[in-house]
Design a protein that fits this description.
about 350 residues
Length: about 350
């Protein structure tokens, strides 16, 4: 909407309803043609001429669609107070014989006010160009009109309540409302069924404010949950990366210990022991492993005959019985001589192999 030369105009269209009838689904928002009215422009009384034609309906229809996409729904209030909602605008259309028509879904309070004749007229609020005497569209915020008892448009006939839609041309035929443009009642029912509003809250005049508050709370909770999920994923990735680094460091330490003779290459049990210790406490375990002395291999002349290089026995793997005996003897050597397990194992293996 172009509001460069806009003024805020508050006026009214009469709604004269028999007490036995309910609030109408369609009302005249602005009567067709040139209307001379006494209304308020920018809050001050003024005598004005307002031109209303099909272009007026087009501008109002576009502005209503835009406002209904925001988180705060446009509404109809009571006496232009801008507080309680008496109804919810859902659609504008043009009727050549009557003017711009507004389809409204009334709140329980609005229905009661019209049915009990507490309020007898409707008064629209819109942006007005004094230079062209034309309606520019809806205001960006606030109500689009209200139920009043003092109308400005006094020269038109009464608008009778009716449940059926007024005659429509092919261009303005009412189409089914899709999900984003559902009637207020249907939206509120969905909110009640979802547990967002209670039945009592849905029937209250401040239902839209409560609905907005609850939806904003749900959005905030969803954003918080998404943030927590992102943080959890980051932590998991960092933990995996750290575990990979520790694994590589432990493997490197064991490889170095095997290379310089502190752990025998075939002694996989000792290698597994030190690797577990390094993964559990890298600093303390690696410091201890560094103090382990390389395994001393006796000179060839000092080896028993069965252990001399080239002998068949020297190349043979330990049997299960021999391995058990070596393990037991290694524990004795470690306890009595205070030597590292690899050294004790080497000595114990030599003794067991030497036994005929």
């Amino acid at each position: 909407m172009n509001t460069r030369h806009a003024a805020i105009l508050t006026s009214a269209v009469a709604i004269d309803l028999p007490a036995s009838q309910q609030a109408p689904e369609w009302i005249v928002y602005l009567p067709a043609g040139k209307n001379t009215i006494h209304a308020k422009m920018n809050g001050k009384p003024a005598a004005l001429e307002v031109i209303v034609d099909e272009d007026t309906a087009t501008a109002l229809r576009a502005d209503l669609a835009a406002r209904r996409k925001s988180t705060v729904m446009p509404f109809i209030d009571f006496d232009h107070e801008g507080k309680r909602a008496s109804g919810w605008p859902t659609e504008f259309k043009w009727d050549a014989g009557r003017g711009v028509l507004l389809r409204a879904c009334w709140t329980p309070g609005g229905k009661s006010a019209v049915a009990n004749k507490d309020h007898n007229y409707f008064s629209p609020e819109f942006a007005y160009d004094p230079a062209t005497k034309r309606v520019l569209g809806l205001l960006a915020t606030g109500p689009i009109g209200g139920l009043v008892n003092d109308p400005a448009f006094r020269g038109i006939g009464a608008i009778m309540a009716r449940h059926e839609s007024p005659p429509a041309s092919p261009e303005t035929e009412t189409k089914p409302l899709n999900a984003p443009n559902m009637k207020h009642e249907a939206i509120v029912k969905c909110m009640v069924d979802s547990g967002i509003l209670t039945d009592a809250e849905a029937a209250a005049d401040n239902a839209p404010a409560l609905l907005t508050e609850r939806l904003n709370a749900l959005k905030a909770a969803k954003a918080t949950a998404a943030q927590a999920t992102d943080q959890s994923s980051t932590i998991t990735a960092l933990r995996a990366e750290l575990a990979e680094v520790k694994e590589k460091e432990a493997t490197a330490a064991i490889t170095a210990a095997v290379a310089d003779g502190r752990i025998l290459a075939k002694d996989t049990d000792t290698q597994a022991f030190w690797k577990s210790a390094i993964l559990a406490d890298p600093v303390k375990a690696q410091a201890a492993l560094a103090k382990v002395q390389p395994v001393t291999v006796p000179a060839d002349s000092q080896l028993p005959g069965a252990e001399k290089p080239g002998s068949v026995t020297a190349k043979a793997e330990l049997t299960q019985e021999q391995s058990a005996a070596v393990s037991a003897r290694a524990q004795q050597i470690m306890a009595s001589n205070k030597v590292a397990f690899p050294v004790a194992w080497s000595q114990a293996e030599s003794e067991i192999r030497a036994v005929k």
